[in-house]
Amino acid sequence: MSTGGLLPPAGPARGLAAAQLTNALGDGAYLVCSALYFTRVVGLSAPQIGLGLTVGWAAGALAGVPLGHLADRRGPRGVAVALAVATSAAVAVLLAAGSFPVFLAGALLYGCAQSGLSAARQALLAGLVEPARRTEVRAYLQSTVNAGLAVGAAMGGAALHLDTPVAYRTVLAVDAVSFLASAVLLGRLPAPAPAAPAADGPRLAVLRDRPYAVVALLNTVMLLYMPLLSLIVPLWIVERTAAPDWTTAALLVLNTLTVVVCQVRVARRVTGLAGAARSVRWAGVLLLACCAAFAASSAGASAWAAAGVLLLAAGLQVAGEMMLAAGSWEIGFGLAPADRQGQYQGFFGTGVAVARMVGPVLLTSLVLGGGTAGWLVLGGAFALAGAATGPAVRRAERSRAAAAPAAAPPAVGAVG
Q: What angle do CA 252, 255, 261 make, to 5 degrees?
């Protein structure tokens, strides 16, 4: 039974939520201020920032699986604590950056540590929460993170208002401290036992699990929604619509508050892999509809009509986002072997790094360059990926069932 609100029931799940809330506060402030900090304080150009962040997230995409494997073998709690400290160190490097090489080093460490931390936390969740409750608890964590990001963004907004080097550096210092505090909270959680090494097969088995790779690839396509509200839609509003300037902020507030209030309720409806696949399929339909609505917002010269259509589009997006999240969490956990949750979560989580890395460039060209046609192509990709997820999940289930008898030990008393 849940307690309602933002936090899960008392116990390890609430400890996980507290740890993620702590670093979300710092991250929210950092995300709002980082671009201006790098340009106005460090003195980097926009192409340098883009290159550094791209390289950092590319390294993170590669690091997720081996760091997740390390969490399986050494224990997810200890690895999560170490990676939270490493993330704090990465932010400290960015705080001390005065040149592009130092910025690049910080971005590399940040991308790798963040990707590994995500995998280790997922493995820790899997070790502390029974399978039937993992998706619901993950939804609580997502709601908590969104609430923390919103509060942190308000702090970042204050730094933007002051617009001084001291204000920006204070934000990065708070972010670094928030990850240290998160490490302390993670260290207070129970420690699941490390998984025993597999008797046979490759160490990084997920890299040879083709059915799981297909599911992860489809999830990566769906995750391309991530840069929409933060980058693509604000540019679309300015360049292609008559909507007022405040619309961008309204869309972000709508998204954040809806996830905080509704994500747990959506996740509770998803049980089992079949239900998860249906949730992802409907997410694809909703994201297609949201893309069509965003495209329609450019028609006409009425500012209020454009704002209304944009709010409708954002509502469709956040509904699809929540259904995708609930379905993908269930799938990511449900298809992963119990003794390899870390490396499988690390692999599944590379979709986030890839979406952050290629999404801005891809969607800027597709949507801002292609207009209405670009929006419809993007929406069609969401719908197709959502529809293909069900067959891909069923194929992965069949591969698990076929492998199970071969992996099972002979029954006692069996005739040889």
A: 135
CB 395 within 8 A of CB 211: yes
End-to-end CA distance of the chain: 47
Amino acid at 231: L
Q: Which CATH class is domain 203-404?
A: mainly alpha
Q: Which fold has domain 12-195?
A: Growth Hormone; Chain: A; (1.20.1250)
Q: Which of 14-28, 158-172, 317-331 tops mean pLDDT?
A: 317-331
**Sequence ranges of the domains in the chain:** 12-195, 203-404
CA–CA separation, 223 and 220 (whole Å)? 5
Residues belonging to the chain: 416
Separation between Cα atoms, residue 88 and residue 53, nearest integer Å: 17
DSSP code for 299: S
Q: Whole-angstrom Cα distance, residue 404 to residue 110?
A: 38
Q: How many CB atoms lie within 10 A of CB 3?
A: 11
Q: Using an 8 Å Cβ cutoff, are 222 and 382 in contact?
A: yes
284: pLDDT strictly greater than 90? yes
Tell me if domain 12-195 and domain 203-404 are identical in fold. Answer: yes
Distance (Å, whole) CA 66 – CA 345: 11
Q: What is the DSSP letter of 398?
A: H
Provide the 8-state DSSP code for 223.
G
Give the number of other CB atoms < 10 A from CB of residue 184: 13
Contact 92, 105 (CB under 8 A): no
Rg of the chain, C-alpha, whole Å? 21
- Split at pLDDT 50, 70, 90, the class of 407 is very low
Kindly write down the DSSP assignment for every residue of 166-210, as one continuous string. Answer: HHHHHHHHHHHHHHHHHHHHHHTS--PPPPPPPSSS-TTGGGG-H
Q: How many CB atoms lie within 10 A of CB 247?
A: 22
- Cα gap 400→397, rounded to integer Å: 5
Smallest CA-to-CA distance from 360 within 61, 50, 56 is with 50
